[in-house]
Design goal:
Layout lengths: L8 E2 L11 E4 L6 E5 L8 E3 L1 H13 L1
Pfam families: DUF397
Protein name: DUF397 domain-containing protein
Organism: Micromonospora polyrhachis
Amino acid sequence: MDMTVAKWRKSTRSSGNGGACVEVADNLPGVVLVRDTKDRDGGTLTFGPAAWRAFVGFAKQS
C-alpha cells in the first residue's frame, strides 16, 4: 500500500490546543488509516471500511 498518497485530515473532535489529536486518511481503496498527530512516525492503525464505520458509529453513541 502506498501511504504517500494518503490525504490526512484532523478529527473534528480533536482539540485546537495541540492536545489529543487524531488524523484519518480515508482516500485509499479498501482501508482507513488513523494516526496520532503528536507522533506521526510512531505508527498507523489500519481499518477496513466496515470496521471503521462500526467504530465511528459506536463512538458517536458515547
